[in-house]
Amino acid sequence: MIKALILTSLFASTSVSAIEQPAYTVLKEMGNGIELRQYGSYIIAETQVSAENAEIAGNLAFKRLGGYIFGGNKSKTSIAMTAPVSQARSEKIEMTAPVSQTRGNDGSWRVSFVMPKRFTLETLPVPNDPTVYFKTEPARKILVIRFSGRWTEANFKQHENELKAALANSGLQPMGTPWSARYDPPFMPGFMRRNEIMMQVR
Question: How many CB atoms lie within 10 A of CB 44?
Fold first, then answer.
């Protein structure tokens, strides 16, 4: 419910097609909604939560991240919504921060919003919530499968398997495991939604 309310508010006054997204170049179209893309670097606002499933994790994280872009920061600045919203399970390696784009079994999830490109790490408003932090995603190649419909675990697994099958036949090397990306608000009909599963490759 929290996630639905926040996303509905975020998108209510903005055309979905007008929402800023990270720039990329399609390097190769592989059929069945699968593309190899080259992304430039961009900044994300991210938070990490512990939850037993993606739905609960999304509700917890969206409250934090939505609060931040709605003015929950030191300068009370409202920040424009961007797309996609990304979510992944994470696991920790020794004393480092959670590994990017991995799904683990420790109940930890990372959820992120892409920050508008007009901001730098130095100019982004400081969050009031210390559990919201920033990261720069580097330029990288990403294998992506795009699909419509409601976001469910079964839908994720089906398309994740299709993505892995395409990867196995591509000669590309995976870096980490897949993560999800969602571009549309809850009120968008399922057949019109843009969902993606992404995997960094080399």
Answer: 20
90/87 Cα distance (integer angstroms): 10
Which residue ranges form the domains of the chain, and what is each CATH number?
Answer: 2-201 (3.20.80.10)
Distance between alpha carbon 185 and the CA centroid of its chain, in Å?
Answer: 14
d(CA 155, CA 88): 15
The DSSP secondary structure of 133-144, one letter per residue, reads: EEEEEPPEEEEE
> Residue 125 to residues 19, 64, 174: CA-CA distances in angstroms?
20, 14, 34
Tokens linked to 48: 């990490």
What is the chain's mean pLDDT, rounded?
82
Task: Tell me the two tokens of residue 69.
Answer: 């872009």
This prediction's pTM: 0.81
pLDDT tens for 73-105 read: 999 999 988 888 888 875 432 222 222 323 445
pLDDT > 50? residue 5: no
Q: How many CB atoms lie within 10 A of CB 123?
A: 8
> φ and ψ at 197, to 5 degrees?
-115, 135
**How far is it, in rounded angstroms, from Cα 202 to Cα 200?**
7
* Euclidean distance between CA atoms 36 and 198, whole angstroms: 10
